[in-house]
Amino acid sequence: MKAIHQTLYFVIITLLFSTTLNASQDASVKKQCQHIVYGYGEFNYTFDALLIGYMNGILYATPPNYKTNFSKRARGETIIRKACHNALNNITVNGFEADYRWQLLKLINNKYKHR
User: Fold this and answer.
1) Separation in Å, CA 36 to CA 39, 44, 82
2) Under a CB-based contact definition with an 8 Å cutoff, are residues 46 and 90 in contact?
3) Hey, how many other C-beta atoms are within 10 angstroms of the C-beta on 4?
4) Distance separating the N- and C-terminal Cα atoms of the chain
5) Spatial distance between the Cα atoms of 95 and 107, rounded to a whole number of angstroms
6) Which residues neighbour 112 within 8 Å (Cβ) at sequence distance 6 or greater?
7) pLDDT class of 72 with cuts at 50, 70, 90
């Protein structure tokens, strides 16, 4: 029963956030990641909360047997820093925020680890 709830939660998150943010918000997420990884720019609490929310949502929706060893052992701050670093180095045409979510999913869920 717990797996059904987790799957439902993950589907709801995916549907709610399947569209990317507008261009200025996407740029703000990228600036926040640059601040986290490189230390320059201003810290933005709103977009930091967004990054944390995406991480917590994916962690909650991923069943324990699908979680990577990294996601089981690392602190949230480390997971976000690594996802930001990966997203900054692997930018696609989908928008930075979508790249960040994809990198988070790859770091947390074993099913997407090698894609």
Assistant:
1) 6, 10, 10
2) no
3) 8
4) 29
5) 19
6) 105, 106
7) very high
Mean predicted confidence (pLDDT) in 1-9: 65
pLDDT digits (tens, 9 = 90+) for 9-37: 666 666 555 555 677 888 899 999 999 99
3-state secondary structure (DSSP) of residue 62: coil
Decide if 77 contacts 65 (C-beta within 8 A).
Answer: no
H or E stretch at 107: helix 96-108
Tokens of 59: 């962690």
The whole-number pLDDT of residue 19 equals 54
Closest by Cα among 54, 65, 62 to 104 = 54
Cα-based angle 71, 57, 29 (whole degrees, multiple of 5)? 90
Contacts of residue 63, defined as CB under 8 A and 6 or more positions apart, other chains included, come to 3, 6
